[in-house]
């Protein structure tokens, strides 16, 4: 069985709730990522911010309530981050995690063990698995010819 630990991303880029939307947007652009786990001072996972959250915030009252000309440097991640997160254990099967992400339309699942963030698994990770499986299938098909 392939587990979440086998395919999760462990090179994590995190921010704190006190960081700004501007810092989240910059980190996403610099690292070419769409999800950022949010950790508190004790390195506990307290939230998640996604590229989709940032796009929604541009149109929401969160930004407008602070004044039309207020830059993203004044709005904190805590104001818009998702707080009640669904997480996955590193020993969970990739299949069950993929089904869960598909059914709930999540873009990612933080991978947590004993309240410690170990990694993140994203829809992109599942696409990579699918590509690898298709390549293996193609190799077996060409061997049979």
UniProtKB/TrEMBL annotation:
Record bears the keyword Electron transport: no
Domain CBS: 8-66, 81-136
A Pfam family that the UniProt record links to this protein: CBS
Keywords (A to Z) from UniProt: CBS domain
Taxonomic classification: Bacteria, Pseudomonadati, Pseudomonadota, Gammaproteobacteria, Alteromonadales
Domain of life from the UniProt record: Bacteria
InterPro entries: CBS_dom, CBS_dom_sf, Diverse_CBS-Domain
Signal peptide range: none
Annotated protein name in UniProt: CBS domain-containing protein
